[in-house]
Write a structure and sequence with these properties.
7 strands, seven-stranded parallel beta sheet, alpha/beta, Alpha/beta knot
Length: 160
């Protein structure tokens, strides 16, 4: 399994995601342009001293990324009407793709992916002006939830 971030903007989120990837021993792909430099102090701080454990790959754009992953499923995550995470069945070599913190994944990237997943939120906002709900999860939280579910599924299959 791999985690891929499409044009991430917030270094602290990427640092936290890198730390989670290190903990689960999975590759983190960053698809440029990034909203920060890889030397950013906030990125490094969020990843703590685990950076030597992070398997990090950078791609100059989505096309280069997709071309390098031809035989793997790219699973996009969005709040835009995907299959709920709990109902999706992961494979060992899936690539989980997450969008920018401010705009998510654009439709052309979602359409270039093999599947679309949404994480269920019981208190979801029905519109941008809905004061009774939340529009989206923090990117690092969404990645953590997805990694855990995929890892749990894959390892329960391998245990059988």
């Amino acid at each position: 399994m791999e985690i891929s971030l499409f044009e991430p903007r917030i270094p602290q989120n990427t640092g936290s995601i890198a730390r989670t990837c290190a903990a689960f021993d999975i590759t983190l792909n960053l698809i440029e342009p990034l909203g920060f430099k890889l030397e950013d102090k906030y990125l490094k701080r969020a990843g703590l001293d685990y950076w030597p454990l992070v398997k990090l790959k950078n791609y100059s754009n989505f096309n280069n990324f997709k071309d390098s992953k031809k035989n793997k499923r790219i699973i996009a995550f969005s709040k835009k009407n995907g299959v709920y995470l709990k109902d999706f069945r992961f494979h060992e070599d899936d690539i989980l793709l997450f969008g920018r913190e401010d705009t998510g994944l654009p439709n052309n990237i979602i359409n270039a992916s093999n599947s679309l997943i949404s994480i269920f939120m019981p208190k979801v906002a029905l519109s941008n002006n809905d004061p009774k709900g939340v529009r989206s999860l923090n990117l690092s939280v969404a990645c953590g939830i997805a990694i855990y579910e995929a890892y749990k599924q894959i390892n329960s299959k391998n245990a059988n």
